[in-house]
Amino acid sequence: MASLNVGSLGEYLREQRRSAQLSLRQLAEAAGVSNPYLSQIERGLRKPSAEVLQQVAKALRISAETLYVRAGILDAERDRDAVETRAVILADPTLDERQKQVLLQIYESFRKENGHASTADALSGADGDPQQTAG
Length: 135
Prior knowledge:
The chain is mostly helical. The protein contains eight helices and no strands. 25% of the residues are buried. Mean pLDDT is 80; it is low at 1-5 and 125-135.
């Protein structure tokens, strides 16, 4: 697993937020996290969980996997193929959400069966602050 660089993650999030023309408050509300907590993440003071990163990525309409790599949750080289495969499945407009989730579960089970750590396991290893509701 790559080392955590929360400062770099925070800078990246701030750039993405600004390019999306969102205020800190607007992004916090859209992501369902508190404004102070999001500010701490941007300033590199907090290490967000994979779930929080996923919520922020969805609000910014960017890839959650990109944030996972930047946060050091996923190793960019080792997990790149799995991340790309997951991204393609999630982006397929011909599948509904249930179908995508089932397909991802099957994919991960085959990876595990063949001795590869699942990307879901890597993501669950992230530790973060439980402050996820707007306050």
